[in-house]
Amino acid sequence: MRKRFKGRHHKTGSNIFKLIILILIIILSFIITFKFLFNKLNKSINLNQEKYLNYLVNDAFGRYKLEDLKILSSTDFLLKYSFGLNKINTGLVEKEVELPQDKIEVVPSEQIEEPVINTDPIIYIFNSHQTEEYKSSFLENFNINNTVLLASYILKEYLADLNLYSIVEENSIVDVLNANGWKYGSSYKASRILLEEASKNNPSLKYFIDLHRDSASYERTTLDIEGVKYAKVLFVIGLKNENYEKNLAMATAIDTKLKEYNPSISRGIIKKEGKGVNGIYNQDFNENTILIEVGGQYNSIEEVNNTLKVLANIIYTYIGERENAEKEK
What fold does the segment set 123-328 form as a domain? Predict the structure, then answer.
């Protein structure tokens, strides 16, 4: 019995040793074959670096693309991957002018002067009713609320793309109300405190935009242009402000330019006074202070975004014309 047991043990050990040898041979064969095929492939195919990097980015991050990562700080990237707006289409057409090759004059790079861009903020964007919300969306799952504050940041990004710099008020209106023992009806008093503080700390500020949204029906606050939906704009001017005519002039100029883009994208200007309304809306602070309502509670953030891109271009044009007019005086 003892001899038979020893014989089996010896035979079992021999089989394990042979199995290990076989596994090592297979692994070694795989490595040699892989290296041979890789070298052959590398020599026969000229890999496009851009395509290869694109493949790696897509494989690692799924929905991201290499060209998007290259413009990480741009508005389109922010809206596409942070706000979920996969396609930004506002109806604005960018025209490209092709010049004949013999008409193109090549200027040496050392003779080209870089444009001087003033990065000092000249626009202050705030929200007296900071918690006003738009239509709910999946963004709330990521703790991103579709409020007018979010709209302010979108507007800021579009203005920055035009080299027009602004500040968005980040302090909480609710905190200011609570600190002073005020109710919601005193929101304009609360925003006035932040408005004055921002102006004091940023002397370059010249224009002040209080961004809101309306509470009207979806039909009243939405425009469809060739399948693209926009949140309509409404301007509010308080007649209790003694110098409201100057604020009205600014609102009228922007409203006119919006209607030149599309007659229906703006709902016009509403003038408020009397019992039950604020009637000033902090517009007595500066003649360049206006209140703009973009869309309503039933509009999506994409519809608001479409309008803000147009609005940013209109504001850019308005300020450019005004600044040039002041220089000529």
Answer: Aminopeptidase (3.40.630)
